[in-house]
Amino acid sequence: MTAIDIDYAWRSLRDACTGRGDGMTPAVTIDADGRWRADGAVEPEAAALLDTLAPITRAGTVVGQLGQSLDGRIATITGASHYVTGAASRTHLHRLRALVDAVVVGAGTAQADDPRLTVRHVDGADPVRVVLDPNARVGPDRLLFTDGAAPTLHVVAQGRRACRGPGVETVAVAPDAAGALAPATLLAALAARGLRRVLVEGGGLTVSRFLAAGLLDRLHVVVAPMVIGSGRPAVTLAEIETLDAALRPPCCTHALDADTLFDLDLGGPG
Ligand SMILES: NC(=O)c1ccc[n+]([C@@H]2O[C@H](COP(=O)([O-])OP(=O)(O)OC[C@H]3O[C@@H](n4cnc5c(N)ncnc54)[C@H](OP(=O)(O)O)[C@@H]3O)[C@@H](O)[C@H]2O)c1
């Protein structure tokens, strides 16, 4: 019997998310807690993929991701972020997109990067694209609002005028006193649409809000061996005075060519 290779492992992961395996990938079992086991030998590359991504297949998982330099920057001060991380890390990001129901970005990213947020580097379905834009400041010419490549939710504060376009739906959310949209409210709005497995793709401010709210189950931080020296920060949380208050979640590392993925197990809400 041949060893389980990376293509088979990837199909197993997708089947675990869709529940539509139809017995096509019986040699790998991924349980409801995101633990995997295989009947037979597994190639090292396939085992690494399963170790990294099986936890994401748990129902209702919310995962954040950031690709940063050694000095914790995700972009230059002008917003240039193509590319902090390498090709293997981009493939990893596309795998994350393919496993989730929805991919969330903040207004800063939608405006600066003009991303498509589709799955292009691996086989898999595009997630619903979600733009958090309380002030409706993202330009209507952005690809998310014009390309029709996948459904897009434009989340704005109530009373703001959202963008129209092919496959674009407005979600109006009541902001808090500071004008912020509570991450729990956002996740509830997505869950109401059947979107429960969620990737918070960036940027730093958006991921940090979900992290501060205790709503990330996992955080994938990909560190590239590069020093930018200035620019947009990755994670920004409330100031602390001693390191006792720092987050020290259980963590696994995986090599992605020259980059290193830190897979933080945050345990999720509650
Ligand atoms: N390397 C990477 O992995 C990566 C990934 C993504 C993006 N990027 C880069 O990161 C930069 C942008 O990151 P950023 O941290 O500056 O901005 P960002 O997180 O993309 O967007 C932040 C903005 O989104 C809105 N927003 C997000 N969550 C919100 C919430 N819960 N409530 C209310 N508003 C919310 C706010 O808009 P308002 O300002 O209108 O209030 C907020 O200022 C870009 O240059 C992009 O290229 C890098």
UniProtKB/TrEMBL annotation:
Which is an annotated GO molecular function term of this record?
5-amino-6-(5-phosphoribosylamino)uracil reductase activity
InterPro entries annotated for this entry?
DHFR-like_dom_sf, RibDG_C, Riboflavin_Biosynth_HTPR
- Pinpoint the Bacterial bifunctional deaminase-reductase C-terminal domain residues: 62-242
Q: Which domain of life is it from?
A: Bacteria
Alphabetized, the UniProt keywords read: NADP, Oxidoreductase
Q: What GO biological process terms are annotated to this protein in UniProt?
A: riboflavin biosynthetic process
This protein's record includes keyword NADP: yes
Q: In which pathway does it act?
A: Cofactor biosynthesis; riboflavin biosynthesis
Query: PANTHER family under this entry?
Result: 2,5-DIAMINO-6-RIBOSYLAMINO-4(3H)-PYRIMIDINONE 5'-PHOSPHATE REDUCTASE, DIHYDROFOLATE REDUCTASE FAMILY PROTEIN (AFU_ORTHOLOGUE AFUA_8G06820)
Q: Name it.
A: Deaminase
Q: Origin organism of this chain? A: Salinisphaera orenii MK-B5
